[in-house]
Amino acid sequence: MQVVKEPLTKMSVHLRFIQNKTEVDHQVFEGEVTMTQQQADAYKQIIGDGKASVTVSAELGESDYGNGGKVFVSVTLTVDQSQAGLDSGIAWAKALSNQKAWEAHAELKAQLHQRGILR
């Protein structure tokens, strides 16, 4: 019987707000990775024995003369311990971390404008 550790996916999103080159706020969101049904179905194919995990991170920034912010996203996926499982897991985690970083970047930009940090 296969035992797969829970949760199968983890994500951490950090939003940092910088004013006059000084961090003025830092928000952290943690939870499971949200996926479309198509992504979830494809991901199920690489879980396999679930005895390995891969973590990939992405970082984006938005600044203007010392004011702005940064986004840092880390995605961890449980995968099969075979080389193919690890390779597929890394590719999936990279794609998901980049996708989630751009989504968080849009939220960051909106908050930077709302807070008056960026015009």
Listing every helix as H and every strand as E from the N terminus to the C terminus, the arrangement reads: EEHEEH
Low-confidence stretches: 1-5
How many helices? 2
Outline: elongated
Task: Provide structural commentary.
This protein has a 4-stranded antiparallel beta sheet with strand order 2-1-4-3. The protein has helices spanning 37-47, 83-114; strands spanning 9-19, 22-31, 52-64, 67-79. It has 2 helices and 4 strands; from the N terminus they run ββαββα. The longest helix is centred in the last third of the chain and has 32 residues, at 83-114. The protein starts with 8 loop residues before the first strand and ends in a 5-residue tail after the last helix. The chain is of the alpha+beta class. The chain is elongated, with a radius of gyration of 17 Å. It has one domain.
